[in-house]
Design goal:
Blueprint lengths: L1 H72 L2 H9 L4 H6 L2 H9 L5 E6 L4 E5 L16 H7 L3 E2 L3 E2 L5 E11 L2 E11 H9 L9 E5 L5 E3 L10 H11 L6 H11 L4 E9 L8 E14 L2 E10 L4 H46 L5 H81 L5 H29 L7 E3 L1 H11 L6 E6 L7 E3 L1 H18 L4 E10 L2 E7 L28 H11 L2 E8 L3 E9 L1
Parallel strand pairs: 13-15
Antiparallel strand pairs: 1-2, 1-6, 3-5, 4-5, 5-6, 7-8, 7-11, 9-10, 10-11, 12-14, 15-16, 16-18, 17-18
Helix pairs in contact: 1-9, 1-10, 9-10, 10-11, 12-13, 13-14
């Protein structure tokens, strides 16, 4: 009977052990799959962010050139000269708005030309002998402007040097009558070097730029003469019929519709860059680029093999931990059966020792042994929990490092576009100054004021972009001293530009103790919050700035009546590069957060759409 009972117990124990082992392995597999899926999703979103940022920069690049060309078309001197067709080589070689515009942008444009209302070239910069007088109606974009009298961005074509390029054309009117057009060409190679070839995520990642027909405008190993992507896709699909083409098909279909997205694709690769006849799995993010009436596409990708390192580390740690759990469970099972065996022996021994006077001593010894095994099991369980916590911490550190590296890559891409952001406002300043110098004695005061406003506004934009970028990259150690917060707020208000469309009300507490901070850094935080409040109240409102001492801390509160912040954006506003504004690079609040933390403070935000926002800078005592 006893043997049968023991056999039943052994069977139950074996089944339980098998169940635990199976469950542990399955949970380890699920953990590994979840980590891999999460990591790929994060990388895809970061690639999409880079693609969208690049698309935005390229769109603004073309838009700024169109804006500058529009400013040239509105030059009264140029309008009259073009209308009367009295432009000649001597005049343009000595003094000409076209020449000035070309000199400002000659590093980025191929040529700048002026055509009359019939499409006849009147002049070109750089100047080429015998070109004036030629009929240019067959050139890309020219016929459209002559017919519709509207601005035009052409499709990609080959220029006179045999290089792919696009043209931007702007109609010119004189006293309401179509007088002709100005047109400049930009080489695709210029766009590629500035916006695409600089994108290098990871070690072997790169970016691809396609036009609206699916032709490769920028690619590490293909050029513009290569076959369009739909043809390339169809050919390789026939060559590799067993390959999973669903990701490539989805990406190509959405790119053709002007959509953004992410995908995991398998690509056949030939050539030295990746090795011959290989199938490469890639993680991609793609976004549309709207160039005039056309939609290009920018795709940023990274080989899946570059993620293998952290994925394999996680797999090794996960399954290693599972193995430890199984070993510990096995050791616990062995200890359990040994305890049962010992217990049975002790019961038998106790049965006989009851008849002996000193049986109690032997019984206590048996109980001591039982407790010893229980303590050993408890120690094993505690060691297991500690190792699990250590592995979890290591995995989190690896994941955080990946996120930081990709954010720094995005910031590097952003720094690459700062030069263009500065060059265009400074170019506008030069043109506005030229217009003022030429017409200041003949135009009304309103025109003078308008151009002066242009100079001031664009200069401030350039200065703000440089300041934000440098502050984000180089936050210095604060030089602390005792400061009166009320006085610091007052000084900051005195050097901020308070617009007429909103009012500032201050409510300072008199019992606030001095705070040990760097006044320059904290003043910059206050100034950023005041400027954000002003931008949020474009239609007017009141900014209330109050100070108080509460709960062992000193607080400065900035409450505006602006448009508020959507709830979905509250957790993102302090992240670098996040912005909902049409201008700027999204570093103001991120810099403010870093400066506040450097000075032992924190920034708290409360907001409701349509009612305003409340930012609290809290200095702990």
């Amino acid at each position: 009977m006893k043997s049968k009972k023991l056999s039943t117990s052994m069977l139950i124990a074996c089944l339980a052990a098998l169940s635990v082992i199976t469950t542990t392995i399955y949970l380890s597999y699920l953990s590994q799959r979840h980590f891999e899926t999460t990591l790929i999703s994060q990388i895809q979103q970061q690639l999409l962010t880079i693609a969208k940022s690049t698309a935005r920069g390229l769109e603004e690049f073309i838009a700024e050139y169109a804006k500058d060309l529009n400013l040239l078309s509105r030059n009264p001197f140029h309008q009259e000269e073009l209308y009367r067709k009295i432009l000649h080589n001597k005049l343009y070689n000595e003094y000409c708005p076209l020449k000035d515009f070309y000199e400002v942008h000659k590093n980025e444009i191929d040529a700048l030309t002026a055509l009359d209302a019939n499409g006849i070239m009147l002049h070109r910069h750089p100047f080429i002998e015998n070109r004036p007088g030629m009929d240019k109606t067959d050139k890309p974009g020219v016929a459209s402007v002559l017919r519709e009298h509207k601005p035009n961005v052409s499709e990609v074509f080959y220029n006179n040097l045999g290089n792919p390029a696009i043209s931007i054309s702007e109609p010119v009117f004189y006293k309401g009558e179509f007088a002709g057009m100005v047109r400049w060409m930009i080489q695709i190679d210029t766009i590629s070097k500035r916006f695409v070839l600089t994108i290098k995520p990871g070690k072997k990642g790169f970016a691809i730029l396609l036009d609206e027909k699916g032709r490769f405008l920028s690619h590490p190993i293909r050029n513009f003469e290569s076959e369009p992507f739909p043809v390339f896709f169809a050919k390789n699909r026939n060559t590799f019929p067993d390959l999973d083409w669903s990701g490539v098909h989805k990406m190509a279909e959405e790119r053709s519709k002007g959509k953004e997205g992410v995908a995991v694709v398998y690509c056949p690769v030939k050539g030295k860059a990746e090795g011959a006849n290989k199938i490469i799995k890639r993680i991609t993010g793609y976004a549309p680029v709207r160039i005039g009436s056309r939609t290009w596409s920018i795709t940023v990708n990274i080989p899946y093999s570059e993620l293998a390192g952290p994925i394999n580390i996680h797999a090794r740690n996960t399954f290693g931990l599972a193995g430890i759990v199984i070993l510990l469970f096995g050791a616990g099972g062995v200890a359990f059966f040994r305890i049962r065996k010992k217990k049975a022996e002790l019961e038998t021994e106790a049965k006989y020792l009851k008849q002996i006077a000193n049986g109690a001593v032997a019984l206590r010894e048996s109980e001591r042994r039982l407790k010893k095994y229980s303590v050993a099991l408890e120690e094993a369980r505690n060691n297991l929990e500690q190792k699990v916590a250590e592995r979890t911490k290591e995995l989190k550190e690896v994941q955080d490092a990946l996120v930081r590296n990709e954010r720094l890559a995005a910031l590097g891409q952003l720094a690459g576009s700062v030069g263009h952001e500065l060059r265009n406002p400074l170019g506008v300043i030069k043109n506005a100054g030229y217009f003022l110098n030429m017409k200041i004695d003949t135009i009304e005061n309103d025109a003078v004021k308008e151009n002066i406003d242009i100079i001031n506004r664009e200069t401030n934009i350039a200065a703000k972009i440089i300041t934000d970028l440098l502050d984000f990259a180089r936050i210095k150690e604060p030089e602390r001293r005792e400061v009166d917060i009320n006085q610091l707020v007052t000084d900051t208000l005195s050097r901020s530009l308070i617009a007429e469309h909103f009012k500032v009300i201050t409510d300072f507490s008199d019992d606030i103790p001095p705070v040990s901070i760097d006044p320059l850094q904290v003043s910059q935080v206050f100034l950023n919050l005041i400027e954000n409040a002003a931008q949020a109240m474009e239609e007017g409102g009141i900014l209330t700035i109050s100070t108080r001492a509460t709960d062992g801390a000193t607080e400065a509160v900035f409450a505006d009546e602006g448009r508020g912040i959507p709830e979905s954006n509250l957790e993102k506003i302090f992240e670098p590069l996040f912005t909902t504004k049409t201008r700027g690079i999204g570093l103001g609040l991120s810099i403010s957060k870093s400066l506040a933390k450097a000075n032992g403070a924190d920034i708290l935000v409360e907001s409701e759409e349509g009612k305003g926002s409340r930012f609290t800078v809290r200095f702990e005592d």
